Amino acid sequence: MKVRELKVLRGPNFWSIKRHKLIQITLDLEELEFKPTDEIPGFLERLQQLLPSLHEHRCSVGNPGGFFERVKRGTWMGHVIEHIAIEIQNLAGIEVGFGQTRGTGAEGVYHMVFEYGEEEQGRYTAKAAIRIAEALINGESYDLQTDLVEIRRLWTKEKLGPSTGSIVNEARRRNIPVIRLDNDSLVQLGYGAKLRRIEATITSHTSSLAVDVAGDKDKTKKLLQDANLPVPYGDVVTDVENLKESIDAIGYPVVIKPLDGNHGKGATINIQDWEHAVCAFYRAQKYGDDVIVEKFIEGSDYRVLVVNNKFVAAALRTPACVKGDGIHNIQELIDRENLDPRRGCGHDNSLTEIKVDDVTHELLKKKGYTLETVL
Question: Is the separation of the CB atoms in 215 and 263 below 8 Å?
């Protein structure tokens, strides 16, 4: 087989006006044009063993197992690669389902099209699907897990975050044209007089002053305090001497975090003594010179979504944890918890993958545990 051309399609296209993200491969089957799947000994069995989940692909037969029936009766390799490309994305957590394979008019040359999640990931998927097909043809073993991990990594790296992604999905649902302007979160919605640009939750109507204030925890707190809203007592410090003075005034327990941090990075809560306060201070300074120290107030942590000055939704944020069973150690419990399909890297899913870092080891040490401790 030989790939004559690989195209990344964006927007309405020859194949579909609804599915805007397609990979199109012009594939020359060469000698395989005269060797459909039913003439390759053991091909179906090897395919079923490597990708048993392809049983769910109905194909033109119209029922589960339909694709395997087609392979058994004999189909061409472009059709097989199309289904492999779709399935390995699904196995990596990317929900896609569209694909087509059509002849070009030239002998043995086909256009093979499949839906992708993100561009670089889609290109990798195309090449991986061809490698898998070639291994199956030749009766060679294949490390599928490596491809699945890489597909997931590329998709996670490229895809829009949850905030931008939600806005873009809603825009597409309303048939508003969407153009991604960079590899981060800058997106154009619509054209001409109706054109708007967004970056994450910031739009062309968002006040720059409001963004600056919201990014400064101390300024935000003072504005809330001026509005007679309860806020924890605290101060901004830049060195250990100022930290000591502030804690003496506030009293334990305290919270120490970067002034302009986000996603909880560098934050330490419920600090009860000076030794841990100093460690927390230096941890926070890894993210910026200015550190905020506040009175710790026990309670629930909510993230609130406000759109056009109206409350829309709230999410309760809970720290990652594992529950012991008397059999497995803490590392095994973490690994098992991370198998939950709702957990993803960073903020790409409803729950975050539990990572073991210096903070994890410090918390375990306080309790007299290690990762090998059986709970």
Answer: no
